[in-house]
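Hi Prof. W.,

I finally got the Large ribosomal subunit protein uL4 prediction working! I wasn't sure whether to trim anything, so I left the full sequence exactly as given:
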Amino acid sequence: MKLKVYTADGTSSSEKEFALPAFEGDKGVAALRQVVLAHQANARQGNASTKTRAEVAGSGKKLFRQKGSGTARQGSRRVPHQRHGGIAHGPKPRDFSQKINRKMKDLAFSRALFERATEGGLSVIEAIEVKEAKTKLFNQVLTAVLPTRGKVLIVDDQFENNAALAARNIEGVSLSEAGNLSTLDVVRYRHIIVSAKGIETIIARANGAKGGES
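And this is what came out:
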């Protein structure tokens, strides 16, 4: 698959062939959806909690006499329909985590890369580096590569210190090392800029998943 490769300053580019996984039809789409849902579910804390009528504090005194009031009989102030009463069927702490096997994760990662590259959202830069740790210098390179942009993910095999410091204050820009890149990252960002070393690591990960090749 051909991707745009930019020089380190982002001023010029050329196309180069990369051994990214290729897919036909809907292969891997279901796995991609399931893995993205699992990532989101695993990020949930699951600590929402409410008190039932047995746990809420309140008087145990009967509200009024059983007969003669002309209203429905009431035996407790802690019932759900009373003010400050317990909650009926409210949330309790629970574990939302989902387990996804390695084969499905690899397939989803490969499919996500294929989708992002097909849409033109994956670009390669020779090196992610700036002479000084200044946001202005990094922003100039970023603007040269993507004149109009929204949220951007910058991926490198290992970030140079100046580049990491210069990029951290730019709104909408996130950094990730190639070895830690997740399927959710690839799906979440419409524009991904990867260094030459980073794309090699990503391709090795993707093509190491035989289930992702077609």
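The two ends are 13 Å apart (CA to CA). Does that look reasonable to you?

Thanks,
D.
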